[in-house]
Amino acid sequence: MHNIGDLTIYLGLAISIYSFIAFIVGVIKQDQKWVNSGKNGVLTLFLLTSITVILLLYALATSQFQFKYVSMYTSSDLPIVYKLSALWAGNAGSLLLWTFLLTMYTAMVAFSNKMKGNPMVPYVSTIMLGNAIFFYFILATTTKPFELNDLIPSEGNGLNPMLQDPGMIIHPITLYLGYVGLAVPFAFAIAALILKNVDSFWIRMTRRWTLLAWLFLTLGNLLGGYWAYLELGWGGYWAWDPVENASFMPWLTVTAFLHSVMIQERKGMLKVWNLSLIILSYALTLFGTFLVRSGVLTSVHAFGDTNLGTYFLIFMGIAVIFAMYVMMSRYHLLKKDSDYFESFLSKESSFLINNLILVGAAFAVFWGTIFPLISEAVRGTKVTVGVPFFNTVMSPILLALLFIMAICPLIAWQKSTIKNLQKNFLIPALLTFIVAVLLFTLGIRTTYPIIGFTIVAFMLFTHISEIYRGVKARRSVTLESYPIALIRLISKNRRRYGGYTVHFGIALIAIGIIGSQNFSVESMKTVAIGEKINIADFEITYENLAQKSEGLNDIIFADLKVQKNGKQLGYIQPEKIFYGNWQQPSTEVGMISSWQEDLYIVISAWERDLRATFVVRVNPLVKWIWTGGVVVVIGTLFAIWGGRQNQVIPRYRGTQRKVT
Amino acid sequence: MKKFVFLLIFLLLLSVNVIFAEEDFDYSSKEFQSIVSMLSMEGHSGDDLATCPVKQTYYNEVAELMAQGKTKDEILNDYVDQLGEEALAAPIKTGFSLTAWITPFFLLFVATFLVYFLIKKWVRPNQTSDLNREFIDETENEILLSVIEKERKKYF
User: Fold this and answer.
1) Which stretches within A330-446 are classed as H helix?
2) Which residues from chain B sit within 8 angstroms of residue A579, using beta carbons?
3) Predicted confidence band at A257 (pLDDT cuts at 50, 70, 90)?
4) Which of A223-227, A296-300, A304-308, A492-496 is least confident?
């Protein structure tokens, strides 16, 4: 099996190089046979990568400890689902997964029905294969998934208990789908430049791909936060860890891209900017991978293989320099046929401001992430740039972003007038004012929450107002009932209303973040059996401490009765799990979650007389974050699938070629 | 046996914590939180307090210093004196570290001007002729188009 595994990787490297060359020869000679051969190579490559993945999964599932990777990340007592998810627990496996997804995307693009007769296909495939060659090179030379142990251990190290969680099965794979998915619009952008076809064709062709990558990045980040909240026991969901930042930065730039492409589609403007954004987003995914693999920054996520980081840095450099060179060599074409803005006050302008803030936010995160390195280089001191820095710097920027999200929908395309704005904003502004007064009356006096909640309320009101205006206008012409008018209005333009649904989701997430960041309370108390802990409106009675066994694990747990304002809410059981083959015990949080707040309890310590110490937190509105995430997903899926506009394949108007 | 040893070590480690907790110190106070949130705790500030001995040690120290009547600045300065700037979870706001704080805002400020001038440059020069042009409402435009489409299907 070792030989077969290695063979599939070497063959994969050879075939990716062959297909890469075949496409280039096909393009130069304008010979369809070469291009077809390259396409067959892509399909073979995908099948081969699938075989490699299946082989490694089989080795993991059957505990074949002769393989280093298997013995490092699994043990024989591990449940099968975690044995399989160990595929992405280490460097070699996760890079193999990356390669698999990359070849899958390449095959999907090359054999897509929508791509029939499209001369961009050989170029796009070549660029994506360039990536595949790099990953195969890494797998074949540096990080071998099928490397053998010198001595076969009788038992493996096991999987880090923190990774033994359903969230951890999905979180990495969604992030990878997002990361790798960005290679598709990047490849299209570069192919468009090479072909000198710089209209918005490549943007229309990749809209769904980009949205899909964005959706997976969103999901990956949210699931990561959800897992951290439930599994790490520190009561938070986002720590501004360098690797979290690494996935947040491309999310911000792709969000900017998804907005600014609308201006290119409508007016043929911002071509250079859109290309720069997609190049930047792609480069940031490689930068993120560099951060994870290099170990240059301290992070809970880091794999810490310095050599690998260097490879990624070099590859990122080559990709960015190549992309910038191609873009600059077509600069004269990109500047041609640009339209004008009709007015200073227009949706176009508001999108530019939105882009400014999103890219500014991405820069702020980038700057904070690399500042320790800069500081070390300049002063020899590696300062820590953690939560206080990011919270301080990012809060005003993200609030400004929410404000722009609030006003954008009500500004007309091309030209808006002051009168028009007054008409559109009057009611939402009045309602927002009432909300602000209500918040103040309810006792919220701190600046950020008041501003934050007010802006979110404004955003919700402007969106509702915009939808209501649409329904009203539709009814006045069609005489449909309100629900029918609403359904038809939305289903006629899924892209736009899917976008608004995403905004609603972001608003819910913002409510959760503002609430939990500003109003959480925490306490740590040691209590004897029968004693109570009082926090916020909760009364928690410590009733019992016991031990149980689950498989090879020993679990210490406490029974806690929870009452709120005298009303019984039930029992919760925080646990501490001790693993047979892992030094650190892990935490299972005891939690009661509601729309208002989460009661979050961690068992900290205990003594022979059964006194126990608990860390108790009340985290307000956290559930809104997860609910907002679901709404974002629904909105994005709504914008991606179906609808009349999605059935239309854009027409290629660029340089014609004999090969497709 | 191995598991028992781990369990024992863990309990011993936590006994320190229990002694601290016995004082019934409620660290949900804003002052306490504002101090501990500013400490990097050797990279353990994001850890679970229940299981992280490093974080527990810092919490104990801060509680002790607060009990001695020291202010937030004094406590943070004590740590910086002992461990350097690395003791803090964010760069200080003087000297070179100040650039960490101001660079993002400075660039945003510059970029705002850039965007302003770009929009100014891109606004159609002969806009006086368009003054009477009605603004285009996207929603109404879409509805109009869908009605036309419906009528077209109905009659043609």
Assistant:
1) 331-335, 347-379, 387-407, 418-441
2) 3
3) very high
4) A296-300
pTM: 0.90
At A646, list the tokens: 């999605």
The answer to whether the Cβ–Cβ distance between A473 and B143 falls below 8 Å is yes
Q: Judge whether A38 and A19 are in contact, CB under 8 Å.
A: yes
| Closest residue on chain A to B129 (Cα) | A342
Give the tens place of pLDDT for each residue, B111-150.
999 999 988 888 876 655 444 444 456 666 777 777 777 6
Q: What is the pLDDT of residues A426-467, one digit of tens each?
A: 999 999 999 999 999 988 888 889 999 999 999 999 999 999
Residue A585 φ then ψ, to 5°? -75, 160
The reply to whether residue A363 touches residue B104, judged by beta carbons under 8 angstroms, is: yes
Residue B136 touches chain A, beta carbons under 8 Å? yes
Helical (H) or strand (E) element with A563:
strand A553-564
Q: Do A578 and B10 touch (CB under 8 A)?
A: yes
For residues A618 and A569, the answer to whether their CB atoms sit within 8 Å is: no
Contact A94, A184 (CB under 8 A): no
Nearest to A426 by CA among A383, A461, A394: A461
Q: What is the pLDDT of residue B4?
A: 55
CB B57 within 8 Å of CB B18: no
- Closest Cα of chain B to A406: distance in Å? 17
> pLDDT (tens digit, 9 = 90+) per residue, A31-45?
999 999 999 999 999
Residue A504 parent element (H or E): helix A494-519
Token pair listed for A82: 């975690």
Q: How confident is the model at residue B19 (pLDDT cuts 50, 70, 90)?
A: very low
Q: CB contact, 8 Å: B142 with chain A?
A: yes
Task: Please state the length of chain A.
Answer: 660
A375 vs A386: CA distance, rounded Å: 14
- Tell me phi and psi for residue A110, to 5 degrees: -65, -30
Picking from B6, B48, B143, the nearest residue to A578 by CB comes out as: B6
- Picking from A611, A606, A233, A607, the residue whose alpha carbon sits closest to that of residue B50 is A233
Pairing of strands A612-620, A597-606: antiparallel
Q: Contacts of residue A604 in chain B, CB cutoff 8 Å?
A: 14, 17, 21, 49-51
Question: Average per-residue pLDDT in chain A?
Answer: 90
> Which spans in B30-137 are helix H?
30-36, 53-67, 72-83, 98-122
The residues facing A31 across adjacent strands are none
Looking at residues A17-26, what average pLDDT do you find? 96
Which tens digits make up the pLDDT trace of B89-103? 999 998 999 999 999
Q: Chain A: nearest CA to B94, how far in angstroms?
A: 13
Residues in chain B closer than 8 A to A233 (CB atoms): 48-51
| Chain B residues close to A480, C-beta within 8 Å | none
* Cβ contact A485:A635 at 8 Å: no
pLDDT value, residue B84: 87
Strands A567-572 and A575-578 come out as: unpaired
Q: How many residues comprise chain B?
A: 156
How far does the CA of residue B10 sit from the closest CA of chain A (Å)? 8
Give per-residue burial for A185-217: e unless 16+ CB within 10 Å, then b.
Answer: bbbbbbbbbbbebbbbbbbbbbbbbbbbbbbbb
On whether the CB atoms of residues A578 and A155 are closer than 8 A, the answer is no
Tokens read off for B78: 């004590």
pLDDT at A645: 59
Q: Is the pLDDT of residue A118 over 70?
A: yes
Distance between CA atoms of A613 and A606, rounded to whole angstroms?
A: 6
